[in-house]
Amino acid sequence: MIRRPGRRTVLAGAAAAAAAGLTGCLQNPNSSDSRIGGVETYSPGQSPGTGTVSIFGAFGGQEREGFEASLAGFTERTGITIDYTSDNDFSTTVRQRVGSGDIPDIGLFPQPGTLFDIVGQGVVVPIDVYLDFDAVNSTLIPGFLDSARLNGRVYAAPMRMACKSMIWYPKKAYEAAGYPEQPATMQELYQVTDQIKAGGIAPWSDGWNADPASGWVGTDWIEEFMLRVHGPDVYDDWVAHRIPFNAPEVVEVFDILGDLLKTEGNVLGGAATIVNTPFSEAPLPLFEDPARAMLVRQGNFVTGFLPADILANMDEEVGVMAMPTWEGGFEGQPILGGGDLAALMNLNDDTVEVMKFLTSDQFGAEWAAAGGWLSPHRTFDASLYADETTRRVATIAADAQVFRYDGSDLMPVSVGGGTFWEGMMSWIADEKTSQQVCDEIEASWPASGDEES
Fold first, then answer.
1. What is the Cα–Cα distance from 255 to 70, expressed in whole angstroms?
2. DSSP of 375-422, one letter per residue?
3. Chain-centre distance for alpha carbon 186
4. Do β-strands 52-57 and 106-109 pair in parallel, antiparallel, or remain unpaired?
5. Looking at the structure, do residues 277 and 381 belong to the same domain, yes or no?
6. Whole-angstrom distance, CA of residue 264 vs CA of residue 241
7. According to the UniProt entry, where is the signal peptide (predicted)?
8. CA distance 100 to 82
């Protein structure tokens, strides 16, 4: 039986005050940072470029091809040459490059934590110096720029989005059974879960194995429920450690998730299967004949792991819905995700022109057509996406009331990529209770100054 508790009273006092202070203006036009020369505005001609702009990112292969194809028209039009290099170990290499003075003009940061490390070295220019901040913010999914904010300034803008708050299903089998394509709340989806189970198959399939990163799928589940049950302000307080990891709100969410995933018959194979199944294989039982499960929660990238025959007819075979809201919780539709954040480290006419294009809703048409890319802009032309399934995901994201970046990517690495991952694996295996896991993760949180996030 899945419990359906109402919304818990939001924390009062200092945590609420801190949250309120941080949800105001994202930029501080009166602040100045002498490490970037105290520059507060930039005018064309102030620093002529060299004709070549170096960009450093993490993606290669087909993603690189899509990226470079999306820049081809820009380079032809402006005459600016783009020198793009990539490294799978971006976080380590960009720190080394900055430390040695080999600083790229623009960095494409897949995680805000690494960005903030580089900001701390005084080499990243706040975006309000050279971009029309309000214009950029007005086209983005609300809340996206929050992920690049530090000490009142925003230091990067997104050029690609990953959307995690998606629930996938085998379209033909699901619709034939008459289940709703978009339940209004999680409580309604739980009713669908009970109906599927009554029909003789497991409602959900799930897998958290991702050696050496096993457990990250579980952290996403917790983050999804924190957003829905307690809303973005409490989510922000939790991620930033303004409330402890073992706060009652967090323990409650663990228990809510436990009622969904640990109830007998809800997940194909139960907890043991979740522990041992690679996350990439979790959607496969949905597309067997007959289907052995009906639902899987995962980001938009999950389609890359589907069988070839399913991908060849994706719009006919694959259904997708937004993970619904929580009745009695946050009233709007939140979206959990990630993205690549473009940050400027060398301010001149050419680099500013590239940043204006990269962070606009005009970037990415060719990449969208090739597949595997989502614009973070609500105003991007959705007709440019390669298939209706991707357009559906893009529309869900564009209609969201608030975006929040993956919480574990914002936490200190030792927590977000360490004890949180590990704790989720112990918890789903029933080796530790919700309270025990939350207490242990809280105890592992580095003291202020011990570790940068």
1. 45
2. -SBTTS-GGGSSSHHHHHHHHHHHT-SEEEE-HHHHS-HHIIIIIHHH
3. 20
4. parallel
5. no
6. 34
7. 1-19
8. 22
φ, ψ (nearest 5 deg) of residue 52: -130, 135
Classify residue 314: in a domain, yes or no.
yes
Cα separation, 309 vs 300, whole angstroms: 18
Only one residue has tokens 């969410």, namely 253
Q: Is 160 exposed, middle or buried (0-12, 13-18, 19+ CB in 10 A)?
A: buried
- Choose among 92, 90, 72: nearest CA to 82: 72
**155 and 176 in one domain?**
no
Radius of gyration of the chain from its Cα atoms, rounded to whole angstroms: 22
Residues 153 and 180 in one domain: no
| Residue-wise DSSP of 51-104 | SEEEEEES--HHHHHHHHHHHHHHHHHH-PEEEEEE-TTHHHHHHHHHHHT---
| Same domain for 341 and 321 | no
Residue 24 belongs to a domain: no
Do 309 and 367 belong together in one domain? no
Beta-bridge partner residues of 86: 57
Q: Tokens at residue 221, please?
A: 């589940």
Local mean pLDDT, 10-residue blocks, the chain (453 residues): 34 32 36 46 89 96 96 97 96 95 97 92 96 96 93 96 97 96 96 96 97 96 98 96 98 97 96 95 97 97 94 96 97 95 97 98 96 95 96 95 94 94 98 98 84 45
DSSP string, 218-268: HHHHHHHHIIIIIHHHHHHHHHTTSS-TT-HHHHHHHHHHHHHHSSTTSBT
Closest CA to 424 of 274, 279, 284: 274
Which residues are CB-neighbours of 339 under 8 A, at least 6 positions away? 110, 144, 147, 158, 159, 160, 161, 162, 376, 405
Q: What is the pTM of this model?
A: 0.87
- On whether residue 236 sits in a domain, the answer given is yes
Q: Which domain holds residue 89?
A: 50-162+335-385
Read off the amino acid at residue 119. V
6 is a domain residue: no
Last residue within a domain, chosen from 385, 400, 419? 385
Amino acid at site 450: D
